[in-house]
TrEMBL record:
Domain of life: Bacteria
UniProt xrefs under SUPFAM superfamilies: Lysozyme-like
Species for this entry: Bartonella doshiae
GO molecular function: lysozyme activity
Name of the molecule in the record: Lysozyme
Enzyme class, broadest EC rank: hydrolase
Keyword tRNA processing: no
EC id: 3.2.1.17
GO BP field: cell wall macromolecule catabolic process; defense response to bacterium; killing of cells of another organism; peptidoglycan catabolic process
Matches recorded under InterPro entries: Bacteriophage_GH24, Endolysin_autolysin, Glyco_hydro_24, Lysozyme-like_dom_sf, Lysozyme_dom_sf
Family: Belongs to the glycosyl hydrolase 24 family.
Record field: catalytic activity: Hydrolysis of (1->4)-beta-linkages between N-acetylmuramic acid and N-acetyl-D-glucosamine residues in a peptidoglycan and between N-acetyl-D-glucosamine residues in chitodextrins
PANTHER family in UniProt: LYSOZYME RRRD-RELATED, PTHR38107
Length: 144
């Protein structure tokens, strides 16, 4: 019997979960030995119960094994959720630090009256305005 690495991996995962004895007596192995490779994903789906109850964890595992067998890649179920970080509040230190740092550059305006100080102060004010705009936009996107 010629198996790809992915197919072998799917069978190893299945055998590890159900046990060698159960696998040796399974219809899955009998059909596989007859060369009915297309039947393996269907046969895997029959093994989703423990103590007579259907377990969602076993359903997910069999879907992943069937996907590995048929497609050569991990297939996730529809029930997996993506974890997201909680949005940072507007008045948290992480949000205010860049803005406060930008305003600290305005000290150059108060320290002198030369054209360089005025130019730097203007750049700092513009940068602070752009920073406030992007921070506000980011917070608005996270709240939607």
């Amino acid at each position: 019997m010629n198996l790809s690495d992915e197919q072998f991996g799917a069978l190893v995962s299945f055998c590890y979960n159900v046990g060698i004895a159960a696998f040796q007596n399974s219809t899955l192995l009998k059909r596989l030995n007859r060369g009915d490779y297309e039947a393996v994903p269907t046969e895997l789906q029959k093994w989703t119960k423990a103590s007579g109850k259907r377990l969602q964890g076993l359903v997910h595992r069999r879907v992943a094994e069937a996907g590995l067998w048929a497609k050569g890649a991990y297939v996730s179920s529809n029930y997996q959720t993506v974890e997201m970080q909680a949005p940072t509040g507007v008045f948290k230190a992480e949000a205010l630090a860049p803005i406060i740092g930008s305003f600290s550059g305005l000290g150059g305006l108060l320290a002198g009256n030369g054209p360089i100080q005025w130019a730097l102060a203007t750049i700092m004010v513009l940068a602070a305005c752009v920073g406030v705009f992007f921070v506000a936009k980011r917070f608005q996107e996270h709240r939607l």
